[in-house]
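User: Before I run my own analysis I want an independent prediction to cross-check against. Here's the chain; please return only the structure tokens and, at the end, one sentence I can use as a sanity check.
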Amino acid sequence: VTGMSPLSPYLNLDPRYLVQDADEFILPTGANKTRGRFELAFFTIGGCCMTGAAFGALNGLRLGLKETQNMAWSKPRNVQILNMVTRQGALWANTLGSLALLYSAFGVIIEKTRGAEDDLNTIAAGTLTGMLYKSTGTV
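Assistant: Structure tokens:
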């Protein structure tokens, strides 16, 4: 076994066998290497809901502490703060989740309609989402 450079005296193995240029995962027949807009939609919507809930909870805690600052630490104050945290958390999670749903739906529809995946789809989906959200007068 001359000419080989083993990794260690205990392994009689040529390191060239360990170098692999090919991808290590197997894709189902017909699958793309990158995730499509529809697959990413679930991550986007879930991530926005979680972010909204966290932001809303922190905002609710801030508002609750501010509104009850004249009260002594007691059960009614704790309940009022907790109510504010849950109410704000749910409100923000719902708002951001709805926006992400609209954005993802528009993105998928535009991609399927145009038959192309590029930045124009993202810009169009964002613009349509903003226009629809503003038209409802929620903000």
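Sanity check: Residues 52-108 form one domain.
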